[in-house]
């Protein structure tokens, strides 16, 4: 707003200061209106007898300020009161006092900002950053990846002063095919390690989520056992990777164990998700009764109990 005033007043700082003081005074009056009330307001809301007592009490406590509408009149006071705010009034006040950017820059104002040395002069900013000149522009081009190829990178012409012939018109430019490098055993082991750690965290997470649910203690124990087993396998994988083992035979037995425990872990996580979804259904979706929901949880818990424990697999 100060910048707008500066432009509208043709850079007259005295007028800018006057406008700022006027807005500040209006803001203070607005704040006063929403925290203080005059004697007529108190009489209207509380009656003359009670309002007289309230005003006397406010004067004793020092909860009064001069009325800005009557400057210099010490008898005109505003009294601080607890009022119930009306949201419609607040929205209207916001709409009325909202600052709207209006007006436009004239030619002189634009010139003051974009002329050489102005705050919008690009060369001024480049010189501040140490990027002026040919060397600075080259550094900037390299930083944003638009630098032209250097002279050493360009192909020099062949014998006889003739360079390489241009491609015939209409000939399509072919790019060399990408060479697909197969994954090495150690890189595959690194990917498997990440998946094992993720599955272990998933088991622990769902074991924690099942704690508030009744009849889920057996499934919680099995999820924890899966997480422990996966943790041991992750340690074994990490040990082989750190030793630089890069042959398939080094990981064959361990990969088979990982696939087996991962399968058991997925079954129990899926069962845990089903129990959690059943417990989160709203009351309206349970068409029969709460006993049916409890029965489904019992069946799920029974299935989890009868399933083989991966910790002893």
TrEMBL record:
Residues 278-302 have a biased composition (Basic and acidic residues). Residues 147-178, 276-313 are annotated as: Disordered. It comes from the Eukaryota. Residues 158-167 have a biased composition (Basic residues). This is Uncharacterized protein. It comes from Cladocopium goreaui.
